[in-house]
Amino acid sequence: MTTDSLPVVASASRDREPRPRRWFVLALAVAVLTYSMMQTMLLPVLPALQGALHTDGIGVSWILTAYLLSGAVAAPVLGSFGDRFGHRRMLLIAMGVFVAGSIIAAVAPNLTVILVGRVLQGASTASFPLALAIVGTHLTDGTRRSATGWLSGTVGLGAGLALVIGGIIASLAPWQVLFWVGAIFGVVSMLLVAASVPAHAVHGQARVDFVGIGLLAALLVGILLVVSQASSWGITSPGIIASAVVAVLAGVALLIVERRVAAPLLDLPVLWRPTIAIGNVLAVLLGFVPYLFYVGMPLLLQTPQPVGAGMGTQATGWIMFPGTIVAFIGGRFASVLMRWMRSAWVSAIAMALIAVGAVGIALWPHDLIANIVFYAVMGLGAGIGTTVVADLIAQGAEPHELGGLLGVNGVLRTVGSSFGAPIAMLIIAGATGVHGFVALFLIAALVSVVGVVLSMCLRSGARTRGE
């Protein structure tokens, strides 16, 4: 990534805003890279953590779940705070909390303290919607789409890169080093943002919807606990039933409260705008379907022959790495496609590519070359799709709504991902041998086709700011 080619030209219509400085997009990309890497960097060391912390598989799984739950709440809340108090300020706060969490986890003596650190690390999930909101504030049209492509591609790049880096570090150093690496990335991102990202005038209201925040947190935590823990706790266990009841009650209360407060956390009429509503549904699909690949591919590659390839963790990471690079390229390529054709067509192409990748692996599950190629095709579609969905939200939002709407969009993608892991395991376990993997990827293809249909429902004239 060369900084000379990054889009840094502000629109003439925004002369009153401070102009972006050199390395503007790079600074935002490093913050997003930090968040995305910590989603997957710990996966290779989970077995080591289980032994080192004297816990079981359920206990160590909370290291992932804590980050997911915290991030699901942080993304829309901090995004909304950014609309009210300044996106740059909230981005620096989010990354500062992340650094604190990384240090706490690195020196943690037990699982409980690590989970505290992971909850704090989850604040970095807001970096993506906040970075996109900053881009939407300072850039317009082609430069905005190009920057969105950089940032969207970075999400996929970080997640895939971390699998390889995490595996290498795990084989050479103690697991604590992974948290120190995260802390270093967090500090670097804060320095770059402070130096390169200008502050901007705040257009939103300063009033905070604390009731809405509490109800949203209860809703998301309830949903994600049901999804992530149903298999280990049991679907009829008191914990799962209580979580489901809390989610339903919080959801109903949230709908009532958000219609009555003056400055709602979730502006429901805005969320029902066609472009934003479809963009949010597509975000769920773009969280769900790629996660079926993230779970299914490593299992397929690491399962002993003749069902799988019998590979190790590092070899699996390198097989999947080309798809990670292609996902990053897809984020950049999306901005080019959107200059040539409607966003609806670009979104449809993205979902179609994911469907092709899924069908290809389903047809040739034992062919390593096919695995590499079709996983890369999926990565290309996911990279394009993430970029076009973020641009759809930017097109449908007013400047003072952008951070909150991108936060909601991000958390919906997270919710989609949270469904991916348990559903993938359920499908794979539901059939013998390789047939479970084949069924998994065929279902991924079918869901992707639904995304193609939804994309074609987008109106030809996307809503723009000020309409």
Give the full name of the CATH homologous superfamily of the largest domain.
MFS general substrate transporter like domains
Rg:
21 Å
Structural class: mainly alpha
CATH architecture of the largest domain: Up-down Bundle
Helical segment count: 17
CATH top level of the largest domain is Mainly Alpha
Provide an overview of this structure.
With 467 residues, the protein is mainly α. The protein folds into three domains: 18-203, Up-down Bundle (Growth Hormone, Chain: A); 209-262, no CATH class; 267-467, Growth Hormone, Chain: A, CATH 1.20.1250. The chain has 17 helices and no strands. It has helices at residues 24-40, 46-52, 57-85, 87-106, 111-121, 127-138, 141-172, 176-196, 210-233, 238-258, 268-271, 274-302, 313-340, 343-363, 368-396, 402-429, 435-456. Helix 3 (57-85) packs parallel to helix 6 (127-138), helix 7 crosses helix 15 (368-396) and helix 16 (402-429) runs antiparallel to helix 17 (435-456). The longest helix is centred in the middle third of the chain and has 32 residues, at 141-172. The radius of gyration is 21 Å and the shape is globular. Residues 1-16 and 460-467 have low confidence and may be disordered.
